[in-house]
Design a protein that fits this description.
Layout lengths: L10 H11 L3 H8 L3 H9 L6 H10 L24 E2 L2 E2 L4 H16 L1
Helix pairs in contact: 2-3
């Protein structure tokens, strides 16, 4: 593979995105059209995807394409106080909830 076609994504950001989306490496492989061992190599930093593969990867992980090139995973906290608990343990926050709350806050500010 030629290096000029490689997308120099950050493996730690890819792993963070996959864990954030709560999907397996096998599911990422299926969504990007490559073998699972290739996804493992991308996440380990042993190989790099091409730009078209990186675009599919971003879609599979529900991330903006540019996030894959950050030097480290961004802070992805809920932008408001979360009072939800299960027993006495704070409830886990899904990526969908964080994205939804951010979108609502954006629309509220716009209005």
């Amino acid at each position: 593979m030629s290096t000029k076609n490689e997308a120099f994504i950050t493996p730690a950001v890819m792993k963070w995105g996959r864990e954030r989306a709560r999907i397996t490496q096998a599911k990422v492989a299926k969504k990007t059209g490559v073998a699972t061992h290739i996804v493992v190599a991308w996440e380990g930093g042993d190989k790099r995807p091409t730009f078209p593969q990186a675009k599919k990867l971003a879609q599979a992980l529900y991330l903006p394409f540019g996030y894959l090139f950050l030097t480290e995973p961004p802070a992805d906290a809920l932008p408001l106080q979360d009072f939800r608990t299960v027993g006495s343990v704070p409830a886990e926050t899904s990526a969908n909830l964080v994205d939804f709350v951010k979108e609502v806050i954006f629309k509220h500010r716009w209005l």
